[in-house]
Amino acid sequence: MEKEKIIYIAEFSLPNMSAYAVHVLKMCDNFCKHAKVELIIPYQENSYYFRKIKKDYLLKKRFKIKSIFSYKRKINLYTRILFSLKTYFYLNSNNYKMIISRAIIPSLILAIMNKKNILELHSEMTGLTKHLFKFCNLKFINKNLKYILLHHKLLDILKIRTKNFCILEDAVEKNDFDKINPKTKLFTCAYSGSFSKGKGLETIYSIAKKAPQINFDIFGNIKTLNKDIALKKVPKNIRFKGFLSYKSISNILPRYKVLLMPYQKNVGVLIKEIDVADYFSPLKLFEYMATGRTIIASDLKVYSRILRNNYNSIILDPKNTNKWIETIIEIFSSKKYDYLGRNAKKDVKKYTWENRVKKIITFSDLF
Questions:
Q1: According to CATH, what is the number of the domain 5-171+352-364?
Q2: CA separation for the pair 81, 343 (Å, rounded)
Q3: Which residues does the chain have with pLDDT short of 70?
C-alpha cells in the first residue's frame, strides 16, 4: 500500500545558514519514516542537489523538494503572497494527508481557501504580518488551523483563541553528535549559533578580556553579528571560525570540553525589536546536550526544566563574568564535572526529532 503524503511548507531557500533550515530538514527526514514527504520552499539552487543536502544535514531518507520560484527573490509581503498562491494552486493538483507549515501567510491563505493545515510558530511577529495574523481567530479560518508552539507563553503573546494546539520544544538527532574526539581542545571553549544581540557574545567578550589564558572558538554566520559587538575590538583569544555546515559542526562541537550558552536577560533574533527570552527553545541547547560535554548556561527560566544546575549543566548569572571565568578554569583543571555531560546526553533522549514527529502525527489526527 502506498504511503500517504505529508506536505511541509517553509520560507527559506537553499542553500541556507539558519537553524530554521536545520529544524525543517530534520523534521522532513523523520516524517519520512511515516509517510511520503514533500518540502515546498521559495527557491533551491539548481547546483545544490539533494545528494549534497543529505550530506550537509546528515539526512537518512530521501524526500522531494519543490522550488516555487525559478530564481531567488527577496522575502517580503509581495513574495510571501505570491508564494502562498502558487503553493495553493500546486496543492490543488496533488494528493496529501497533512499540511504542516512554518510560514504564516501561506498557512493563513490556505486556511482561507478551506485547506486544513498545522502552523508551527517559534516567535511573535512584527509589522503587517502581526496584523494579518489576527484574522486567524475568525471562525471560518480558525476551523482550518492547528498550532504547534515552542512555549506556552506564545499562546498569550499571539492571542491564539483555540484549543487546537500543542507545545513542543525543539529537538536533536542524538546520534549526529556521538563523535567524541580523543584530542579534546585544551583551555578552549566553544560557542555555536547566531550572533544577534543578547545571544551571548557580549558575555564572551567580557570573559575573554579578563581571562586571556582561555580561548574561545566561535562558530556561526558572521553576517548576523549585531552592530554593538561588530564595532568592538575583538580580544586576541576569540577566534571567529565562520559558518560550518550542520555535518561539520556535529563533528566539531564534541571536541570541546566546555560549550557556552551565555544568553543575556533579553535575547534578540534577526527580526528587529523582538525579545524571545521568555519563550524560545534554542536548537543549540539540544545539540550541546547530545555531545555529552559540559554546558555552562545563563540563568534563564525558559529552559530551567531542561537544564538543571549541577545535574546536567552549570547555570550562572550572565553578569557575573568572574564566576564564569572561575568555573571554566575549574572544569578544565578537573574531571569532576564530567558527570554533567553524561547526564545531559541521557536527558536529551527525550528530545529527538523522531519523538517530536510522532507527537505531531498523533496531534494531526484530531482534524
A1: 3.40.50.2000
A2: 46
A3: 1-3, 180-182, 230-231, 270-273, 366-367
- Per DSSP, the residues of 243-301 read ---HHHHHHHGGGEEEEEE---SS-B-SSTT-B-TTT---HHHHHHHHHTPEEEEE--G
Domain over 174-350 is classified CATH 3.40.50.2000: yes
pLDDT, tens digit, 9 for 90 and up, residues 41-50 = 999 999 999 9
Beta bridge partners of 258: 189, 294
pTM exceeding the 0.85 threshold for the entire prediction = yes
* pLDDT for the residue numbered 270: 61
Compute, in degrees rounded to 10, the torsion defined by CA atoms 222, 228, 232, 238.
Answer: -40
Strand order across the 36-41 sheet: 64-67, 36-41, 5-9, 98-101, 117-121, 145-149, 165-167
Cα separation, 296 vs 190, in Å, equals: 11
The C-alpha atoms of residue 332 and residue 311 are separated, in whole angstroms, by 18
Task: Decide whether 5-171+352-364 matches 174-350 in CATH topology.
Answer: yes
In the chain, where the domains are located: 5-171+352-364, 174-350
C-alpha cell at 225: 553579528
